[in-house]
User: What shape does this take?
Amino acid sequence: MKKNFISLIIILASTLTACDDWLTAPQPGVTMTEDFYSSGDAAIQNITACYVPLQWEYSSTYCCEWFIGDVVSDDALKGGQSTNDMSDVYDMENWKTATNNTLLHDFYKAQYQGIARCNMTLENIPNMDLDSVMTQNVKNRLIGEAKFLRAYYYFRLVRVFGGVPKVDHVIGSDAEWQQARASVAEIYAFILSDLEDAQKYLWKKSEYADEDMGRATKGAAQAMLMKANLYFAGDGNAKYRNGADAAQYYQAAKAWGDSIIASGEYSLCPNYADNFTLAGENGPESVFEIQYVEDPTSDYGEGFGFTRGTFAVILTRSRSSMLGGGWGFNKPTQNLYDEYETGDTRRDVTILNPNDTLIENPAQEIYLGSRYISRKYALYNDDLSYYTLTHATRGPINNKQIRYADVLLMYAEACEALGNESEAKAKLNEVRQRQSVNLPEYPGYTLKINGEEISNPTLRQAIRHERRMELAMEGHRWFDLCRWGVAEETMNAYRATESQEAQDQMATFIAGKHELFPIPDEEIELNPLLEQNPGY
Assistant: This one.
């Protein structure tokens, strides 16, 4: 009996072992990670997927980054049909943001989706064998693209939320899910490290085939090294530098700018407006653009990843059918309109000032006193008629994240901070004397800031004014104010210039709180190790 029992145990053990082998056999139709990373073509597809979350502008709500960069600043009012339209943005621009803000949560999730894809790539592509498609040169480029993109996603996060969890590998278990916030200094160090690696591996813009335009380049990585160093050097980040001298970061920004300028890969478009046309995409001034295409696919009710078109066109076009028939968001302020110098042709490329005959419904079109319309992403044909969208809400125009004009102004800013005024003036004037702009050289002109005329502006004032005019309505302004450490004084001065209707909506700006937005409360519920930003 005992013998038979032992025999049964052996039989059962053998059977269970056999069953275990069967249970762990690969499931038909499922591709294992190691099977996917088996060819150069697959690796390139994986890298392409790492770019996709940059395109995402809609999940639970619309979450375009310019809702933060423009509308929260003195450049734009929310717009839309009424103050209730896109209430998340209304709260953000008026210092009433709650921790359950849907736009901020969608934006936060999109960046971490991008980071996760980059981490997957960086754990697998370095170990892949070379083949006819993936030469060593291509392999290096793919690694560079992934590092650039991971740094880019983290840069977008740190500007909005401050320190965030630093995840530099694939999360493989529930035990790793909960991560504490890294400090702002740690995130910037990580960004700079990734970008420094990326620029070693990435190709120059001129080395890419036409069909690969839009991929990260050596120049894009160097421009981001300029930008990240400038941001961390700014007075607004002094408390995070742990005593480190800002000069070292300004010096690094200048050095990377020297590399870009010396490369000869970029130049200013003679006609400023060409930067915002379909024909001008990925042109001589383009350093990095988020790529969009004509896409008739609807993502209503679906969210992230269901369209490759941009919402920026329909969101920013006028609500009047004669002016494109859009939704009327991101309305330029009177304050921005008034700061343009007399004869600055960039104003009318950036802002449309419609007359009464073009406004069909003033109650819906004129928002808290502003009748202005943002033009840069409204998408015109060559004859200035409105481009007809294939899908009612999708546009094909790229989002210009870094232009060469931005590089020149960052270079001027770094030089001014280091006391190299001659180089700062030269690059400032290069932007001002673009063929289609052709404004007087610095010094020698008067600025008007917050209604006050400044006849002898300092070089720093002139550079900051130029950034506002050159890059207006491109999502930069709010982040510039915060890194310069002037958000409170600028927004208070701006408030005094606004319509009484707009002033009545604004809460008090609180320094030390409102420069950052709250970590989404759903993320804190999932991860109690996250600490909320001060004041929220």
Remarks:
- The domain at 32-202+508-536 is CATH 1.25.40.890 (Serine Threonine Protein Phosphatase 5, Tetratricopeptide repeat).
- The chain has a mean pLDDT of 92.
- The first strand starts at residue 76 and ends at 79.
- The radius of gyration is 25 Å.
